[in-house]
Amino acid sequence: MKMELGKVYLVGAGPGNPELMTLKALNILKKAEVILYDALLDPSFLEYFPSSAIVHYVGKRAGQHSATQQEIIDLLVRYAEEGRTVVRLKGGDPFVFGRGGEELLVLRERKIPYEIVPGVSALSAGSSGAGFPLTHRGLSRQVLIMDGHTVLKEDTDWKWFAEFKGTIALFMGTSSIGQIAKNLIDHGASSFLPVALVENASLKTQKTTVTNLGKISEEGLSKQSSGPGIIYIGPVVNLIGETPEFSEQGFLSQGEEV
């Protein structure tokens, strides 16, 4: 007799602070038999895992991959085919650079029951924690999300990006932001266009660095921590406070008080 399939939940854990996990995510986590979890930043997440659950850490950080995407998918399928309730707990939202789509397609192909539970994305958590909106009347009515890993490798329409009237949010872009800034300026963007790097969004260790495209194109932009960072480009960054006055190095750094 064929064993009844279990169910896989692709769950967004939020940007890093357990208090930003949704109530639905928490309730699903409580009934999990198997948990495959990402690098969730705050270790207190582990307190919410059932003691009876089989737990796998499969988090990814640049240069520190603990499991390949295929290995993660294989685990999801294996445990679901054993009839277990499986939670794939992802940082942020599963469908915002979380590779949730790849896992979803495999689950559909294997006819494994699943449910998607959205999470608070670091996209909004970073800007909110730093004190500026993603959209604002008269400044930005649209948001463009870019992947810093691949934008320099693809056939990117830099003129279109340079003329974009809104907020650009760059994930995984701290190593490539120098060249991105140069490309944007070369194609018409103002060198004074403000930029914010937000690290460890939603945590007590959140750091915000404010500068502009010109300074970055000349000097680069260095992270202050080993945690993940999101880069925001656009006039809304000025709403952190009054228009920033830059130091000789071109940076205004803000810590927990932001």
From TrEMBL:
GO biological process: methylation; siroheme biosynthetic process
Gene Ontology molecular function, alphabetical: uroporphyrin-III C-methyltransferase activity
Pathway assignment: Porphyrin-containing compound metabolism; siroheme biosynthesis; precorrin-2 from uroporphyrinogen III: step 1/1
Main EC class the enzyme belongs to: transferase
Keyword Nucleotide-binding attributed: no
Entry EC number(s): 2.1.1.107
InterPro entries xref list: 4pyrrol_Mease (IPR000878), 4pyrrol_Methylase_sf (IPR035996), 4pyrrole_Mease_sub1 (IPR014777), 4pyrrole_Mease_sub2 (IPR014776), CobA/CysG_C (IPR006366), Siro_Cobalamin_biosynth (IPR050161), Uropor_MeTrfase_CS (IPR003043)
All copies of domain Tetrapyrrole methylase, residue ranges: 7-216
Keywords: Methyltransferase, Porphyrin biosynthesis, S-adenosyl-L-methionine, Transferase
Sequence similarity: Belongs to the precorrin methyltransferase family.
Protein name: uroporphyrinogen-III C-methyltransferase
Taxonomic source organism: Leptospira sarikeiensis
Gene name, Swiss-Prot/TrEMBL: cobA
